[in-house]
Every structure is written in structure tokens, then in C-alpha cells.
User: Which sequence fits this backbone?
């Protein structure tokens, strides 16, 4: 059997006509759409308001998220939370999820080092994300970093040139608004002398998103 056939993608585990995010969330732990479920502790689905105006899409859960089963609760999540507050995006206006729902890592001693998901993992997991966005149907989908941006806008997206402005795209539900910005983990990895500026740019982008809401 080819690798492709052994790893069918999430579609067969996604309920056919889910009427709510809760119905999706309840189905997600059974997913075997790619091999990432096995070493991970648990699936990390989504959090926040399932009728939100803004959906934020990250890359994949990190170590803390894998342990707790909730997205964006570790260091990157804390930075994101602060940036959202500074930008005036109230918690009840956002839905938070990831392009990939299981933590990919490399064991090193008793530590687990983040490993960027492959394009094949993103593709395998995309049926969940597609269904989430269909159900939430936010005004703006904010893509945090390259993995999320490529997952929904294709491989040619570049954070540097595409960030900071609305991008209209045809979807199965009609034209929808996407918005690319940096990932909060990238802000944390920025050398100290440039980190404040990277954080300020993230807040500025989130303010732009607030300005797009009606
Ligand atoms: N980084 C992400 O992209 N998602 C999380 O949930 C946590 C960290
Ligand atoms: Fe399924 Fe996504 Fe987890 Fe892979 S990463 S097993 S596709 S939920």
C-alpha cells in the first residue's frame, strides 16, 4: 500500500452534516487521518465563540496545549491573548483553532521539541478546518503564520508580502475575507532587540482586523 492510502486524511472521521462545532469536537478524538495522533497526548480541537466574527487559525498545538487539550494556552497563547486585548478584540469575538489538531514533536531526552507539520499533515487535517470555518462563518479568518496561511491560501503565500491587509478569496460559501499576520511564536523567537517591534506589528495587524468588522 502506498503511504497515501495508509494515511487517508481526516475526511472519513468528519461527521457528514454536523450542526455545530460541538458535534465536530466530539468526533475529533477518533481521527486517524494521519499518523500524528499516535505520539500525541490528545487531539486539541478549538476554543472560543463558535459564532465569532473573527476566527484565528494557528499552526498546531504546542507542548502545553497537547497536555491540556486546549489551543493557545502556552507561551505563544499568552502573548496572543495580550495582543488581542491591546487590539480591542474581546474574547467573545474570537474563535481559535489550528491548521493541524495534533502536536508534532521530536523527543529529546524527556523534552518534546516542536516539529513543524509537513504539507501532508496540513492537507490531511484540512477537512476539520474547512468544516469549522463553514459552521462558524466568521467575517474575517486571521491566519497566524505560514502554516495556517498556506493551508487556506495556497503554497505561494508569503508572510512578508501578504500580511496586514484583507485578502478576498472565493470559497465554497462565496467570497470570504482572510487576513495574514505573524505567528505569536515567531514574535517570541525574534531576537530581543527587535521583539518589541515584532509584537507591535502583530497588535497593529489585529487592530486592522478590528477595523474590518462591521
Ligand atoms: N501555537 C499554535 O499555533 N497553536 C497553539 O494552539 C499553540 C501554539
Ligand atoms: Fe486527524 Fe488532524 Fe490529528 Fe492527523 S493531525 S490525526 S488529520 S486530527
Assistant:
Amino acid at each position: 500500500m502506498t503511504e497515501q492510502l495508509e494515511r487517508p486524511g481526516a475526511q472519513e472521521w468528519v461527521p457528514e452534516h454536523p450542526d455545530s462545532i460541538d458535534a465536530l469536537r466530539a468526533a475529533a478524538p477518533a481521527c486517524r487521518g494521519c499518523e500524528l495522533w499516535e505520539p500525541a497526548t490528545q487531539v486539541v480541537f478549538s476554543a472560543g465563540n463558535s459564532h465569532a466574527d473573527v476566527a484565528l487559525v494557528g499552526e498546531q498545538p504546542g507542548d502545553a496545549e497537547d497536555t491540556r487539550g486546549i489551543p493557545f494556552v502556552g507561551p505563544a497563547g499568552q502573548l496572543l491573548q495580550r495582543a488581542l486585548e491591546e487590539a480591542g478584540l474581546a474574547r467573545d469575538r474570537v474563535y481559535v483553532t489550528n491548521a493541524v489538531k495534533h502536536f508534532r514533536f521530536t523527543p529529546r531526552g524527556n523534552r518534546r521539541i516542536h516539529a513543524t507539520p509537513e504539507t501532508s499533515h496540513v492537507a490531511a487535517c484540512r477537512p476539520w478546518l474547512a468544516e469549522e470555518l463553514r459552521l462558524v462563518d466568521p467575517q474575517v479568518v486571521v491566519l497566524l503564520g505560514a502554516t495556517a496561511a498556506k493551508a487556506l491560501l495556497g503554497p505561494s503565500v508569503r508572510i512578508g508580502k501578504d500580511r496586514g491587509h484583507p485578502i478576498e478569496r472565493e470559497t465554497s460559501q462565496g467570497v470570504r475575507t482572510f487576513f495574514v499576520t505573524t505567528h505569536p511564536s515567531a514574535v517570541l523567537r525574534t531576537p530581543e532587540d527587535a521583539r518589541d517591534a515584532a509584537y507591535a506589528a502583530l497588535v497593529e495587524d489585529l487592530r486592522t482586523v478590528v477595523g474590518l468588522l462591521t
In short: The pocket of iron/sulfur cluster (ligand 2) is lined by residues 10, 28, 31-34, 36-37, 43, 100-102, 121, 124-125 (CB under 6 Å). Residues 8-212 form a domain with the Uracil-DNA Glycosylase, subunit E fold (CATH 3.40.470.10).
